[in-house]
């Protein structure tokens, strides 16, 4: 899979916590809370998913932070290249990277003694010292150089559409850009990156701040642009205005072509009408699909609920043919219970007579205790009246042989 290069612009602002620490006996400047990348951001119609950032953010740990993107013969190279270290390294690196609350943050460390040994390093120290002292509160810009594999996919994140997803990211460095403007232009930083094997590939530059700008594909933005275009068309015929609208016209024609629509020979108004109709059709199709999916989900849930209720009813109700057996079983259980109570009562009567116990004491007997005392009764008592010969005063041992 092809690997792409991108430089992501962000800033270190004056609110950053800048302190000094001693590491290995040497003074270091520490800038807390540097943010190289944020979750689910869409830049230049490419999505940088939180899940992919989670997989790769640790490659930022102890990444070098050179002053500017390293170049040799006008072409970008890895910050770990020997020439890059010799020409661009200022004793700075990123450490303590963490991925939380929707963004990646880390701490910038600068070895003051090392930085003082180069002109680039001295410039960085002066800038950081002025920021810490409040003399110069303008943000310092950084640019995170990374490689990624792109996967074609259409979607939307944070209100912005994308047609590619960045995966398998690997961070090479975080460049400090003292001479770059805040927003950056498409031409700044764009160039050729030379891999370790000598192969070349293009680099694009994107800005974290772009995530806050409107998406040209957003219907609300297009409506505003249409009104703006109509205003300029009605009030000016200058070449400058025409040049301003060309990028949007190109975007519209490309979108129509992607849908297989003919664009050749159509006026701007016709192209805009066709585009608006295409957007409306897409929105309707999406709404219809969502509604259908919602109905199918509701239908499925109802079927599952009905099936569950039906199963409960079937399990709780016995079949009609089993009713006589159930009645007979219930009668048998009642009869057994009556017989058990009768037998227990006869045993208690015998024990009471034998041991001269009170009603309270004998009624408290049950189970094994009752059975053991009953077994000690000299006279055998039957469990029903047919065998209860209470008029016989002789024990079994006194009966004739």
SSE topology:
Layout: E1 3-12, E2 18-23, E3 26-38, E4 41-43, E5 46-48, H1 50-56, E6 71-72, E7 75-76, H2 82-88, E8 92-100, E9 103-111, H3 112-115, H4 119-133, E10 140-157, E11 160-177, E12 191-194, E13 200-207, H5 219-235, H6 239-258, H7 268-316, H8 323-355, H9 359-363, H10 367-375
Parallel strand pairs: 1-13, 5-11
Antiparallel strand pairs: 1-10, 2-3, 3-9, 4-5, 6-7, 8-9, 10-11, 12-13
Helix pairs in contact: 6-7, 8-10
Characterization of the model:
This protein is α+β, with helices and mostly antiparallel strands and 401 residues long. Helix content is 41%, strand content 26%. It has three domains: 3-211, no CATH class; 214-317, no CATH class; 322-380. The protein has helices spanning 50-56, 82-88, 112-115, 119-133, 219-235, 239-258, 268-316, 323-355, 359-363, 367-375; strands at residues 3-12, 18-23, 26-38, 41-43, 46-48, 71-72, 75-76, 92-100, 103-111, 140-157, 160-177, 191-194, 200-207. The strands form three sheets. It has a seven-stranded mixed sheet. Strand 10 (140-157) and strand 11 form a beta hairpin. The longest helix has 49 residues, at 268-316. Residues 181-196, 235-245 and 380-401 have low confidence and may be disordered.
């Amino acid at each position: 899979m092809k690997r792409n290069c991108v430089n992501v612009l962000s800033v270190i602002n004056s609110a950053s916590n800048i302190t000094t620490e001693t590491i290995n006996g040497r003074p270091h400047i520490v800038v807390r809370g540097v943010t190289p990348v944020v979750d689910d951001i869409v830049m230049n119609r490419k999505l940088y998913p939180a899940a992919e950032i989670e997989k790769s953010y640790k490659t930022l740990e102890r990444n070098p932070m050179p002053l500017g993107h390293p170049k040799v013969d006008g072409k970008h190279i890895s910050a770990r290249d020997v020439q890059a270290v010799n020409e661009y390294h200022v004793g700075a690196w990123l450490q303590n990277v963490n991925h939380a609350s929707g963004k990646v943050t880390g701490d910038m460390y600068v070895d003051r003694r090392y930085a003082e040994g180069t002109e680039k390093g001295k410039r960085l120290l002066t800038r950081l010292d002025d920021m810490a002292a409040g003399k110069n509160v303008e943000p310092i810009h950084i640019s995170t150089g990374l490689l990624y594999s792109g996967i074609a996919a259409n979607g939307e994140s944070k209100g912005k559409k994308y047609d590619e997803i960045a995966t398998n990211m690997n961070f090479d460095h975080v460049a400090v850009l003292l001479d770059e403007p805040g927003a950056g232009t498409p031409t700044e930083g764009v160039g050729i990156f030379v891999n370790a094997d000598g192969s070349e590939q293009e680099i694009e530059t994107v800005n974290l701040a772009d995530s806050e700008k409107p998406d040209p594909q957003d219907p609300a933005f297009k409506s505003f642009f249409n009104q703006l275009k109509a205003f300029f068309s009605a009030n000016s015929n200058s070449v400058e205005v025409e040049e301003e609208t060309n990028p949007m016209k190109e975007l519209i024609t490309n979108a129509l072509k992607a849908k297989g629509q003919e664009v050749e020979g159509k006026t701007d108004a016709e192209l805009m009408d066709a585009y608006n109709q295409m957007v409306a059709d897409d929105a309707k199709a999406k709404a219809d699909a969502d509604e259908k999916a919602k109905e199918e989900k509701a239908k499925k849930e109802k079927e599952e609920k009905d099936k569950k209720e039906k199963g409960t009813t079937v399990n709780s109700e016995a079949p009609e043919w089993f009713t006589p057996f159930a009645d007979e079983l219930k009668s048998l259980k009642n009869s057994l219970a009556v017989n058990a109570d009768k037998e227990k009562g006869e045993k208690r009567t015998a024990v009471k007579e034998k041991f001269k116990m009170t009603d309270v004491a004998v009624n408290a007997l049950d189970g094994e205790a009752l059975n053991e005392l009953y077994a000690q009764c000299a006279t055998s008592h039957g469990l029903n009246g047919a065998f209860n010969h209470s008029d016989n005063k002789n024990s079994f041992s006194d009966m004739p042989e």
